[in-house]
Target: 5-formyltetrahydrofolate cyclo-ligase
Amino acid sequence: MRRDLQEVRRSLPPDVLAAAGEALARRTLELEELAPFLAPSAGPEEAARRPTVAAYVSMGSEPPTGALLDRLRDAGVRVLLPVLMPDNDLDWAPYEGADRLVPAGWGLHEPAGERLGPQAVTRADVVLLPGLAVDRDGVRLGRGGGSYDRVLERLERAGAPSHLVVLLFDAEVRDEVPAEPHDRRVHAAVTPSGVHRFRH
Model:
C-alpha cells in the first residue's frame, strides 16, 4: 500500500501539488482547534493566547506545507518544526521563516534556530503529522520510519491534550489501512477538500 500510494503521489503534476498546498493552508487555519484564537472576532483572552502548532516541512511529492507554515506564522501561531536526530527520534525548533531552513539528511529541511528538545512537542495545541493514508477510524499509515510513532508515544505518556491531525490528499482517506498494536489514532485529517473527523 505504501508503494502504491507513493507512486500515485509521484505522478501528480506541479500545478496540482501547488493548488493542494494552498487549499491545505486555508483548511488548516479553519480548524476549530485554532479558529477561536485566529478569528477577527476573538475575545481578549483568546487573542492574548498564542497557540502552538507542531508542523513539518514537506518533501518530494508530499502535500506541500510551505504556504501553511507561513500563514500560521503570519497569524501569530508559534510553529515548531522537527529536527531529525541520529537515532531517528525528533527534536524540535521554532520556525522563523523559509529563509531560516537549512538542508539536512534524507532530503529534509530543518530550522536553523535553537533546539528545544524532544519534549517540546508535548506543549503543542495541534500536531500536524505527515502520512500516506488514514482510515475512517483515524488509523494513520506513515512512511515506516518510526519517527512519528515515537512522537505519538511521547505525547501519550505526557498526557498531552494535543489534537493530532494528518495532512493528506483527498484520495488518501480510506475505509481501512493496516494497523499495528502500537499505532496511535489521529483526531482528524485535513485534505484540500475539507476536514475529516474521526471518533475513537
Helices lie at 2-10, 14-29, 35-38, 44-48, 66-74, 147-158.
